[in-house]
Amino acid sequence: METPTLTRDAWLTQALTVLKAQGHGALKAQPLAKSLNVTRGSFYHHFDSLQAFHAAVLDHWSRTSSGQLIQTIRAMADPREALETLLQQTFRSGEALERAIRAWSTVAPPVAEAVARVDQDRIGLAEALLIQCGVNAPEAKPRARLLYWAAIGRLMMPFPDQSTLSPAEISALANLMASHPS
């Protein structure tokens, strides 16, 4: 029996849960419908095609994985505090889902393009914060990239939960990256 309150967001949230646990191959209408205890018709009520669903999943991932954090960071008045908050969050979260999205991006060009856009947004935020901290633009860009690449690289380690920095180490890293010659 169809659940009348099942929303598009419920499908997308379930998709991220399944993606994280089973990988991109499990993002299909019938298995997802079964996991939500609805018919496949419910899927097609919300999505025109599997491709449209995949695009919506990527958008949902972007909004839930970094969208809220980016808004929070941009609302902070102190750029050093914002940078530290960003790094604390980035270096201490997201292993399974981020790994699954990136694995999917290696076999699906539209996913790779979506991931690249999210990466650029995230790097751009770090770069802007570094500039607000007084780092000149030519130095801020490579620093932002290095920070981001380190965060993503940590996620690709065989045991990312064992490859962590303490909050104090992350604070020191934020201070180092925000420092600039007088």
What does this structure look like?
The protein is mainly alpha-helical. It has one domain (8-178): Orthogonal Bundle (Tetracycline Repressor, domain 2). Helix content is 74%, strand content 0%. The chain has helices at 8-22, 29-36, 40-46, 50-75, 79-90, 95-105, 109-132, 137-155, 167-178. The longest helix has 26 residues, at 50-75. It is elongated. The relative contact order is 0.12.
Keywords:
mainly alpha, Tetracycline Repressor, domain 2, elongated
CATH fold name, please?
Tetracycline Repressor, domain 2
Specify Rg, calculated over alpha carbons.
19 Å
Task: Provide the residue-averaged pLDDT.
Answer: 91
State the low-pLDDT regions, or none: none
- Main sheet makeup: none
Shape: elongated
Helix-strand blueprint:
Elements: H1 8-22, H2 29-36, H3 40-46, H4 50-75, H5 79-90, H6 95-105, H7 109-132, H8 137-155, H9 167-178
Helix pairs in contact: 1-2, 1-4, 1-6, 2-3, 4-5, 4-7, 5-7, 5-9, 6-7, 7-8
Concise account of the structure shown:
The chain has helices at 8-22, 29-36, 40-46, 50-75, 79-90, 95-105, 109-132, 137-155, 167-178.
